[in-house]
Specification:
The protein is mostly helical. The chain has helices spanning 15-26, 30-40, 48-57.
C-alpha cells in the first residue's frame, strides 16, 4: 500500500486510488476495478456485474491479503 499511496500518505483520497488498489491487490483488470469504484459510489450497485466483481475482489484472501 505504501508504494501505491505514497503521495497521499497511505490514504485513498482519489477515486483512482481505489482503482489502483483493486487492480494490485485483487488482480482485477482496470475495467473491473473501475466498475468496483463506480459501485462503491452507488452508481452501479444494482447491476449484476458489480456483484461478480465484488466476489472477485474477495479473492484477495486467496492471494494472501487479509
Amino acid at each position: 500500500m505504501k508504494e501505491l499511496l505514497e503521495e497521499t500518505y497511505g490514504v485513498m483520497v482519489y477515486q483512482e486510488d481505489v482503482i489502483m488498489v483493486a487492480h494490485y491487490f485483487a488482480g482485477l483488470d482496470m475495467a473491473e476495478a473501475n466498475a468496483l469504484r463506480r459501485g462503491m459510489s452507488g452508481e452501479y450497485r444494482v447491476h449484476k456485474h458489480f456483484e461478480e466483481i465484488r466476489e472477485k475482489f474477495s479473492g484477495c484472501v486467496k492471494r494472501g491479503v487479509s
